[in-house]
Amino acid sequence: MKNEKNEWKWKTIIEPFKIKMVEPLGFTTREEREKVIEQAYYNMFNIKAEKVLIDFLTDSGTGAMSATQWAGIMMGDESYAGARSFFNFETTVKDITGFDEVIPTHQGRASEKILFTALECKGKYVIANSHFDTTRANVEATGAIAMDFPIKEASQFEKQHPFKGNADVEKMEKFIKEKGEKNIVMCVMTVTNNSWGGQPVSMQNLKDVYEMCSKYKIPVFIDAARFAENAYFIKLREKGYDKTPVKEIAQEMFEYADGAMMSAKKDAIVNIGGFLAMNDKKLSAKCRQYLILTEGFSTYGGLAGRDLEAMAIGLREVLDEKYLHYRIRSAEYLGEGLKRHKIPILNPTGGHGVYVDAKKFLPHIKPQNFPAQALCCELYIVGGIRTVEVGTLMFGKRDAKGNFLPAPMELVRLAMPRRVYTQSHIDYIIEVFGEIAKKKDKIKGLEVVEMSDMLSHFTAKLKIKG
Questions:
Q1: Which of 55, 215, 310, 406 is deepest in the core (most CB within 10 A)?
Q2: How far apart are CA 375 and CA 457, in angstroms?
Q3: Which residues contact residue 409 at a Cβ distance below 8 angstroms, ignoring those fewer than 6 apart?
Q4: Which residue, among 269, 351, 324, 326, has the nearest Cα to 67 in the 3D structure?
Q5: 132 is annotated as an active-site residue
Q6: Mean local confidence (pLDDT), 154-173
Q7: 457 catalytic per annotation
Q8: Active site includes 266?
Q9: pTM: predicted TM-score of the whole model, two decimal places
Q10: pLDDT score, position 448
Q11: Looking at 113, 131, 266, 352, which residue is catalytic?
């Protein structure tokens, strides 16, 4: 098969790197895994990593760093203040985002905590295309209310749409008018949109949201954890960007925002790190005060100099279009394999993984019995694969009587660590799903044993229903 340039289009996905170091996998028997999952109270976060064969729990901090990054770690400047590594990091962030004020943090949720604390959000609203779990928790911890405005196509899982991560600008503006612009603290645009399948946001949507919010003097911040993947989707899918380098697309994305927060554990391909960036000097000064109070001095932000160095290198490496092609194509390949076994997924596949529609796959399990979590458990028992639930366990709420109000989705996220697994690992996952599909009617739901009020999915204890 040849493409329009008369070049051969290979079916095999070739990783754009060679393996220089290896780590053994955690092989176990089914009997062992049944005991492990029971002892873990059917919570993926309680399973020891050594008992996991393929770990798709998260793509956050689980990537493989490059030889250049490891070399940078050896060159890290560990000075407490004014380290050379900080200035390398600062220069890189400024180059990509265009923001003058750069504040390092140890990870994304630290950035969220500092930002929303500095904004004094209590009793007000933060609007977004969709908040992810820690973002929502940090908004609500300040006494504010997090409101999501995804487009209607986001919940139409079978429907193809190039930018399901987009915000519904019309509904956003209607809400602003109803609540009053002074009661809206900020708009967050999450790219890609993690809660709804890692779906991208179009450049036009970023522009429209920014122009609308600017009219009401509401600052817009980009949650930039997966900014490079989003930029590559724009190159692939949005008219007028097919010949634009990904770095230039990313730079334009940040033009339609007043600031950004990032968990660098995603698209900077490091194991720890994050940052806040903005132009508002008054807000940045306030954020730096909280940084020093809770994280560390303003030029290291709770990180070692070596981590700052690795982040700077990773932020440049992630914009390599050969890497991004491999990354996006790998997710597509997994999605195609699952669909061959009639596994319902969120279409099209996102940038950092594949989301399985557990509500459709396991219709016999009621939302209050966590069908997505039940499927996560089955994947571990059958194949030693660890995934994560994005459904009622993560986003469900309780009414006055303590009963669960279901989340709008019941998804299992297969988040793919960067530069870690090969095509044969993906083929194995597809094979495991095929086996599960044959006996899916026998999968049982779960019941709560113990659960916290905030970010409960991290620590919840569950048991098999009945």
A1: 310
A2: 15
A3: 155, 196, 357, 359, 390, 391, 395
A4: 269
A5: yes
A6: 96
A7: yes
A8: yes
A9: 0.93
A10: 87
A11: 266
Encoded amino acid at 183, one letter: N
Instruction: Say if residue 236 is in the same domain as residue 119.
Output: yes
**Residue among 80, 122, 174, 322 flagged as catalytic:** 80
Asked if residue 16 belongs to a domain, the reply is no
- Asked whether residue 254 falls in the same domain as residue 356, the answer is no
Q: Which of 83, 110, 118, 225 is catalytic?
A: 225
Active-site residue 148, yes or no? no
CATH number of the domain that residue 115 is part of: 3.40.640.10
**229 falls in which pLDDT band (50, 70, 90)?**
very high
Domain that residue 458 falls in:
30-59+320-464
Residues 300, 383: one domain? no
Same domain, 308 and 380: no
CA gap 244, 122 in Å, rounded = 42
Verify whether residue 370 is a known catalytic residue: no
pLDDT digits (tens, 9 = 90+) for 270-323: 999 999 999 999 999 999 999 999 999 999 999 999 999 999 999 999 999 999
Question: Would you call 80 a catalytic residue per the annotation?
Answer: yes
Q: Which of 132, 157, 395, 421 is catalytic?
A: 132
**Residue 422 burial (CB < 10 Å; 0-12/13-18/19+)?**
exposed
In this structure, are 222 and 115 located in the same domain? yes
17 belongs to a structural domain = no
Catalytic position from the list 148, 168, 223, 357: 223
- Shared domain for 36 and 156, answered yes or no, is no
Q: Which two tokens stand for residue 310?
A: 């690795």
In terms of domains, do 36 and 118 share one?
Answer: no
Tell me the pLDDT band of 395, cut-offs 50, 70 and 90.
confident
| Mean pLDDT along residues 381-401 | 88
| pLDDT score recorded for residue 9 | 58
